[in-house]
Each structure stands twice: as C-alpha cells, then as structure tokens.
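During the reporting period the student researcher (J.K.) took over the structure-prediction task from the postdoctoral fellow and processed the backlog of single-chain submissions. One of the processed entries is reproduced below for the supervisory committee.
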Amino acid sequence: MTLTRLFLAWLPVAVWFVVAPPIGYRVDLLVGRQYFVWGYNRWAVMGRLLEAVVATLLGSLWFDSLGSGGWWLLFLLIGLLVAYPVRWQLLMTAASERRRELLVGLMDTARYIGAGAILAWRLG
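J.K. obtained the following structure tokens:
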C-alpha cells in the first residue's frame, strides 16, 4: 500500500464526510435538538477530515489483508458504533422523539456505509 494510493482513497472519503457531516447530537449543545445543521468552521472540517483518515486506514487494513468481501457489514457495524452510544439515553424519550432519534442514527450510520462503498471502489 503506497501513500499515493492511500491519499487517492482518502480524498473522496474526505469529500464525502465534508458534504455529508454527522447529523444530530454533535451539534445538539449548540442549536438545541435541531437536526440537519451543517457547521463548516475550521475545527468541524478538520474533525471530519481526521474522521476520513481513520475510516480510510481501517478500510485499507480490511481490503489489503482480509479481502473485499463483507465490507458493507464492517462499515455498517462501525457506523452503528459511532451513531448510537450517545443516542441510547435519548431513546428513552417520548415515542415520537424515539423514532426521530432512530432515524437520525441510521442516517449517521449511512455515512459510514457510503464511505465503505467509496473505499471498496478505490481500494478493492
């Protein structure tokens, strides 16, 4: 695995994570309980770029050592681990809020599945 190949795999994932930022609890403290709030300050973008680095390195480890099969399951599980730990407390709210929290968590998970698809295309 060359650094050039890693960089070329990271670049579309970084663009994906900047275009489809985390949804929900990461901005709850700033804007209340609103969803779909995109913040593009320097620190938010840097955090998303570093998140893309970690996802790319994980994808590289997966595709270069274990093969390309089952990538969607790997990134689904990682997305669930990222999206739901903080949400478990929020899921104890009213039923209408519970559905909303579950939907937003699934949308956060979809970000990682999208990143996995990009990495499967670039590294597979």
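The committee noted the following: The chain is about 75% helix and 0% strand.
J.K. will present the remaining backlog at the next meeting.
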